[in-house]
Design goal:
The protein is of the alpha/beta class and 503 residues long. It is built from eleven helices and 21 strands.
Length: 503
């Protein structure tokens, strides 16, 4: 019995030794790499990658040969830790991001891939003089700042278009203040008016920069809040090709938000070049000045909005990179409310919290506010003269609004409030206006008193509702509200309606 016990113990010992011996012989190949994806700057750039292996390794490319724009300082190595320097040899002038895939294979059977991207260099960098952040005069968050805006007005069809309206004067700005406005939106055509569409640099003409800067200066000196944007600007943000857009009216024919478009990178490059210049030139103004990325970008699906958001992100990064007061400046983005959400604002990763806002426009119902031709003459509807409760006509009922009156409009305002404002994203109503017909105009309402009251009520209602939800209203004006040459009010009824709604 004793021999059997000793024998069993010996068997167990042998089995244990065999088990642990086998475990020690299990081989785990070693191959670690510090990154699997590299984004090179658009200019000449270099980065390092750290590789650790327990055997020899070699480099190859998925395209078999190394791209002529890329260089690695090592193509093979032995076991241990190795630092590989990867360098771009030339700027990317293709107009699109170019890519390469580096494959590192080890004799231990392991392999790793590194994806390398290089952004396009289409325009030179204009962030040539970044400065340290400066919070002087920039204490308000976007919500606090927009809450200070009582009533705003647009200098429409002026600095964004050629030869339509004369340049604003200091007297114009002072008159705007006297009329009861405390904010001005300045639509700008930095490329269309202030540059050359075929320019290889997208450099804005210094004279145009100085002109916009002077108008901003007059506004700030008169304690007016200011929004400066990139407006239609010849259509480069919207169209597939600049030649697609002959006039602003053809704006909706095509756009650059197609996810399959090859122009996304070049559009972002132009957005960056322009905003670096705009932001640098206007950097010294305090929080009275706000920047808006675009005007009415017509992204019409979630996929298209995803592309538009990259343009907004480029805008935010370009402005912030210039430093100074731009570090804290309130920035405004736009988009169809169906396809943009508060999560998108978070995804912008703005380094300065609580300084982003949203912009929407109101021309509802458009057959009442902007339509100037009936269906028989090519209009999308018949022109409507009468809007709002108690204002409908019995003499020409076909001219009464059939949609977009108070109840439906309130739904839209509530959506802005619950989707953005209630979630900490302040909003401006960057444009709203309605045409007013009279006895000598193209259309002559039979019940002119009801038509005039309809227009009055529309202005008062929309101004009031915008302010009720916490938004800031900016009426669109191209010179109809007041004469910019004489600084005399042209349309007292509209002015009175705006003031009434703003109280």
């Amino acid at each position: 019995m004793k021999k059997k016990i000793i024998y069993s113990i010996l068997v167990l010992l042998v089995a244990s030794v065999s088990f642990f011996s086998c475990k020690e012989e299990i081989y785990v190949p070693l191959m670690d790499i510090s990154t699997k994806s590299i984004s090179m700057q658009e200019d000449l750039d270099s980065v390092t990658v750290t590789l650790t292996t327990d055997n020899k390794w070699t480099v190859s490319f998925d395209d078999a040969t190394i791209p002529n724009w890329l260089q690695l300082d090592k193509a093979a190595g032995d076991a241990g830790t190795t630092v590989i320097k990867i360098k771009t040899l030339s700027p990317n002038t293709t107009g699109a991001i170019r890519r390469a895939i580096v494959r590192i294979s080890c004799d231990n059977g392991q392999a790793r891939r590194i994806k390398i991207y290089q952004a396009p260099t289409i325009y030179p960098s204009y962030n040539t003089s970044p400065i340290a952040p400066d919070a002087t005069g920039m204490s308000s968050t976007a919500t606090q700042l927009i809450a200070k805006i009582k009533l705003g007005i647009n200098l429409g069809n002026t600095l964004e278009l050629k030869g339509v309206n004369a340049d604003p004067t200091e007297a114009n700005i002072k008159f705007i203040k006297q009329m009861g406005f405390n904010a001005v939106r300045i639509p700008c055509g930095w490329d269309y008016v202030g540059g050359a569409k075929d320019s290889k640099t997208s450099e804005i003409a210094p004279a145009y920069v100085a002109k916009v800067k002077q108008v901003v200066q007059w506004c700030v000196e008169n304690d007016l809040y200011v929004v400066v944007n990139i407006h239609w600007d010849g259509g480069w943000l919207e169209s597939k090709e600049l030649s697609d857009f002959k006039t602003p009216e053809t704006k909706w024919q095509s756009h650059n938000y197609d996810p399959a478009s090859s122009r996304k990178d070049s559009v972002n490059a132009k957005q960056k070049a322009l905003w670096q210049q705009i932001a640098t030139s206007l950097r010294d103004f305090d929080e009275h000045l706000m920047f808006a990325s675009a005007n009415e970008p017509n992204a019409e699906s979630a996929a298209e909005m995803k592309i538009l958001l990259t343009y907004h992100k480029t805008f935010i990064d370009a402005v912030r990179s210039t430093g100074g007061r731009n570090t804290y400046r309130t920035l405004i983005v736009q988009g169809a409310t169906d396809y943009i959400s508060p999560d998108d604002f978070t995804a912008f990763n703005d380094p300065t919290p609580n300084r982003l806002a949203f912009e929407w426009h109101t021309y509802t119902p458009s057959s009442f506010t902007i339509l100037s031709s009936d269906k028989v003459d090519g209009g999308w509807d018949d022109v409507r003269f009468y809007w709002g409760a108690g204002n409908h006509s019995t003499l020409e009922p076909n001219r009464n609004c059939s949609y977009g009156e108070e109840t439906e409009s309130l739904v839209g305002y509530n959506q802005i409030k619950t989707k953005f404002i209630d979630k900490g994203i302040p909003c401006i109503m960057g444009e709203y206006s309605s045409q007013r017909w009279n006895a000598t105009s193209k259309f002559k309402p039979l019940e002119l008193d009801k038509h005039n009251k309809s227009v009055d009520d529309w202005y008062t209602f929309n101004t009031k509702q915008c302010k009720a939800i916490g938004g800031a209203p900016f009426t669109w004006d191209t010179g109809g509200l007041f004469n910019r040459g004489t600084n005399v009010v042209n349309d007292q009824r509209t002015l009175d309606a705006l003031i009434a709604g703003s109280k």
